[in-house]
Structures are given as C-alpha cells and as structure tokens.
Specification:
With 506 residues, this protein is mainly alpha-helical. It has 22 helices and no strands. It comes from Streptomyces graminearus.
Length: 506
C-alpha cells in the first residue's frame, strides 16, 4: 500500500480508540455497559444492529461464494436476514425492550432462570458462549486474510492487531462504544464500498455496461440457487436466521434492549431490515462481476482484496481496508459485550455465591475482565481457524447449525403461545439438537451443508413443539413474563414497576 493508504488506515484506528475513551464517560454501571442505560436512539440502535450482524467475512468467505457462484450469495445469505429482521420487528424486538424495562435485566439470558429454571439458563449460556468463541474467531481469521493480501502481514499478526484495537475500545466504553463505533464504521465502510462499486462499474463500461455484463459472466452466475446452495439449504437458513438475528445472536437482542421504548426497538429493527435488503448487494457487486475483470484467481477468498488493490487509487485502498476492518470490529466488539453480560449476569451468579451481590464497581470490573478474556480466547482460536474449515466453514457449518438448538427455547419462550412450554421441552430440544449436529458432522462425516444445518434445527424445533404439547409445564412465572413483554404491557401499571426476576425453584 502507498503512504496515503497507511494514513487512512492509521486514522481509522485512532478514531476508534478515541470513541472508546469518550464512551468511557457514559458508563457508570453494568446497565450502561451492557444496554446503554436504555437511552440509545432508535436509528443508532438500528445501524448498530445491522453493522453487528456481519463482518469481514463478507469480503472473504461470502466474496468467495459471489466470485465462484454469483448472485446466489445475496439470495441465500442476505435476503433471509432482511426477512428475519423484518418479521422480528413485530414479533421479538419490542419484547426484548419490554423485558429490559419491566425487569431491569442486562443480559438476554437473564430471564431464562425464571421462565424455565436455572439448569436451562446455564445450558444455553455455556453452550452459546462457547459457540460465539468460534464465531468471532472466524471474523478475526477473515480480516487477517485481507490484511495479509494488502500489506503482507502474517495471519497471526493481523489477528493480533485487530483484536487488540477492538479490545481497547470495547472494554473501556461498553455498548455505547460499540454502537458509536458501529455508526462511524458504517460511514467509513459506506464511502469505501461505494468507491469500490463506482470504480468497478467504470471498468465494465459504466451503467450502460450493466446490461451486457451479465452475459459475460459464467452461465450459472445469475441463478438464484446453484451448486450446494439448494432450496432446502435456503429454507433451513431462513429459519435459522429468524431465530439468530432476533436474539439468538445475543448482541443483537442487546440493541433492542438498549432503546428507550418498544416502538423505538421496532423502528430500529425495520431500519436494520431495510439495510440488509439493500447494502449487501452493494458490498458484493464487485465480487459477483469479479470473474469478468479478474478471471482465474487461485484463492477466491482474496478476490475483493485483490480487486481493491488493483483497481483503486492510493488512499482509497487504505479506506477500503478500514471499511473491511469496520465490519469485523463491529461484530466482534458487540459479541464480546454480549458474552460478558451473560457471564456476569447469568453464569457467575449461578456458580459463585459472591457473584449474586456485586457492587456497581465490582460488576463493571467483572464485565471488563470477561470482555478481555473472551476476545483473547477467540483470537487464539482464530489462529487455528483452518482446522475448523476456515471462516466460511465455521460460519455456515458450525454457527448456523448450532444456533437453532440454542436460540429456539430462548426466543419462543417470550411468546404467549408457548407459555405452557417448560424446562423439559427446552432442555431436551437443546440437548438432542446439539447431539444431532455432532452425529451428522463428526460421526457420519457429512459434507452436505443442507443436512448439516437442517438436522439440528429440525430436531430441536420438532422436539420443543412436541414435548411442550404432550408434557406441558404451566407456571405462574411463565404466564407473568409472557404477559409482561406483550403489547399490553406498554400501558402504564398504576401499582408501580414489576419486581426484579427471581429464579424459579425446580
């Protein structure tokens, strides 16, 4: 890279660190650290939700699919996100916000101890935390590949640089730092991506050349579903993302909890859904037409970086790299904040008596220590990402497959229709769903992506529904919680706020 590129990249990192230090002044307790104190504007929450939903994997793993298969990447990877987030705007986003306001919770899993029991809460907390280590590791590995192409820095050093910068600003500033840097990253990434699209268009004949470019692409590049990305794969992916992007990915639930009201949470979800409908098409356009401009790339994971390096002028290359960094740092920092909230609010109180009565200062210190530990462990795993199938293998085969069993009891437990579903349905569906993934992936050694994703999802969903119907476990706690997060709960109660959640006795 030329010196203007290094200036752009260095300036980006300085701004991120400055935002983290500024946000530090807004954090006085765990509520501020994990949910922004419930004061986040809906538009900032919506942009943060969107930016936290995908990372540099877009420019590595997904760009590779776009280069190799064409527009199918938009059809199966991003349309489901827009659909899921749009549905969640009505079904889940307001409920997460009411849950925070009615019960003063700071973790998406905090309500599960009362809704089901402590065993269910702990099962979902521990397995979900472990899953997110691998998910974030895939993001570090993705951005390291990009940095290697642009600068020649080794993968391990690239992981270390990105992780340390993210570690500093999100540990110091909490959710406010995450959201504000998400907004700054959205602006930077927007300028970089639009520049890349304009330059790419110029090389294919401008807007007038769009009509003919499709005829110059490989024959199957304009097919919505092609190769391993079948209708069955798409169906499973849609259902997985419905749960994942409405709270199964804990950091996204936090964005809804951080707004000041249920209507604001709904608006933030609709904004995020609109961005998922439009923005991925802009990001992936250069990779889709990549076979015309740069055919025969040996490693498709490098296509976006190689196109930027060869097509963009000095200065814009560094800005584009900063834009790629932005997605990874946005998702990783928000994931770290979410995991810390689960550890501090859900896991520590269950395993250590002293953790149930932490002071504001001790709770905040514990939150920051957990954030540091999570990012550090994920960086170590990222350095061994090739052993788990690389970034795309982790994202599609591991995270997408395991997300269903973890998120189904959590999300459906908020809905009144499932208020009679108890811990038996939750734990069996969770355990059997994870066991079916291990069976398909590691015992049967299946390479069928549809089977890998659909089996644990279907197993968990069917068992949750059937067991809840055949062996209902009605409880006053479940009735209370599902009623408290319904639309009727927005009507002020004259008797005052609902008391804090207390774990149900088994």
């Amino acid at each position: 890279m030329a010196w203007p590129d290094w200036v752009a990249l260095g300036g980006y990192f300085v701004v991120m660190l400055f935002i983290g230090l500024w946000s530090h002044k807004r954090v006085s307790d765990v509520s501020d650290y994990f949910t922004g104190g419930g004061r986040m504007p809906w538009w900032l929450s919506g942009i943060s939700h969107h930016m936290s939903g995908y990372s540099a994997a877009v420019f590595v793993a997904y760009a590779a699919v776009a280069y190799s298969y064409g527009i199918t990447i938009y059809v199966w990877a991003f349309l489901p996100l827009a659909l899921a987030t749009g549905v969640g705007a009505w079904l889940f986003a307001p409920r997460w916000n009411r849950l925070r306001r009615r019960y003063d919770v700071a973790s998406p899993l905090e309500y599960l101890a009362r809704r089901y029991n402590i065993a269910t809460q702990q099962a979902l907390a521990w397995s979900g935390a472990l899953l997110k280590v691998f998910d974030v590791a895939a993001k570090w590995a993705s951005v390291a590949i990009l940095l290697n192409v642009f600068t020649g820095v080794s993968l391990d050093i690239g992981i270390l640089i990105t992780g340390v910068v993210t570690l500093v600003y999100c540990t110091v500033g909490g959710l406010w730092a995450d959201a504000l840097t998400d907004f700054g990253q959205f602006i930077i990434q927007g300028v970089a991506a639009l520049s890349m699209v304009i330059i790419t268009l110029n090389h294919v004949g401008g807007f007038s050349g769009l009509g003919s470019i499709w005829h110059r692409l490989p024959a199957d590049h304009t097919h919505p579903l092609v190769g391993p990305y079948t209708a069955g794969f798409l169906t499973a992916y849609v259902v997985v993302k419905l749960f994942e992007y409405n709270g199964g990915m804990w950091n996204l639930a936090q964005r809804y909890m951080a707004t000041d009201s249920a209507p604001a949470a709904k608006r933030s979800a609709l904004l995020s859904a609109a961005l998922y409908l439009i923005w991925p098409a802009v990001l992936l356009f250069p990779s889709v037409v990549g076979p015309v401009l740069m055919p025969h790339i040996a490693d498709p994971q490098q296509v976006y970086a190689l196109m930027a390096e060869n097509l963009l002028p000095a200065g814009l290359v560094g800005l584009t790299l900063a834009g790629m960094f932005s997605h990874t740092m946005a998702m990783a920092s928000s994931d770290a904040n979410a995991i810390a909230s689960v550890v501090v609010r859900d896991i520590i109180p269950a395993v250590a008596r002293r953790g149930r009565a932490l002071s504001a200062r001790s709770g905040l210190l514990a939150a920051r220590i957990c954030t540091v530990a999570f990012i550090a462990v994920s960086m170590v795993v990222a350095m061994e990402a090739s052993h788990f199938g690389g970034p795309l293998g982790i994202i599609t085969a591991l995270v997408a497959a395991v997300m269903g069993p973890i998120s189904i009891p959590m999300l459906l437990g908020l809905l009144p229709a499932f208020r009679r579903w108890g811990s038996l349905a939750a734990l069996i569906s969770w355990g059997c769903g994870l066991a079916s993934f291990v069976l398909v992936k590691y015992v049967l050694d299946s390479t069928d992506q549809t089977l890998t994703i659909a089996t644990p999802l279907a197993t968990s969903l069917v068992l949750y529904l059937v067991i809840g119907l055949l062996l209902p476990q009605p409880s006053p706690a479940a009735d209370e919680i599902t009623a408290a997060v319904s639309a009727a709960a927005d009507i002020p109660a004259p008797e005052g706020p609902t008391p804090p959640l207390v774990p149900a006795t088994d």
